[in-house]
Amino acid sequence: MHLEGFPRPLTLRDGTALTVRPVKAGDQPALLAFYREMPREDRLFLKDDVTTESWADRFIRRIERSEALSLVAETGGQIVAEATLYRPQHGWSVHVGELRVAVAPSHRRKGLATALAGMLVKLATDQGADKIVVEVVENQVPALRIFTRLGFQREAVLRGHVKDIGGARRDLLILSNDVSHIWAAMEALVADSSPEVH
Length: 198
Known about the structure:
Elements: E1 8-11, E2 17-22, H1 28-37, H2 40-43, H3 53-64, E3 68-75, E4 78-86, E5 96-103, H4 112-126, E6 131-137, H5 141-149, E7 153-163, E8 169-178, H6 179-192, E9 196-197
Helix pairs in contact: 1-3, 4-6
């Protein structure tokens, strides 16, 4: 998928230089390497087993069918983050996008998740999305903090919906915001502390 303005350089708060680009066919091995390196306890909170070739092939097909829009951040040809906006093509929720972001531990707390989320929100706006939803497990405090700062609000709590690596049940928080509120919050964050997008 070709997106105007991509690939684009991104400099994180610590000076790390990355390239952000859309996911494309042929990225399966790099995506699998990224997710297989992610700590098991982090992968546990993902909806799919992102370490299998069948997942990678299905994921690329969803992108090719315009059911998902995914960006990766990479350095030296290695993926260090992946963010996806899922949008249904039919039905009563075509105006809603679901946002998911995964960042390698080595690149966390540097503004990368916020930058990728901002790019996807802008693309979602351009494609007509009115509302963005995210799901966060209760103990994912950094993710909860990011999305709260972006203006997301709690809409629902599914009690005991997720099991962690030790088998303990965790609450799943469903947060949402309409795109106009997100974009205003994103602009405020960009002015304060986000990485530099060239």
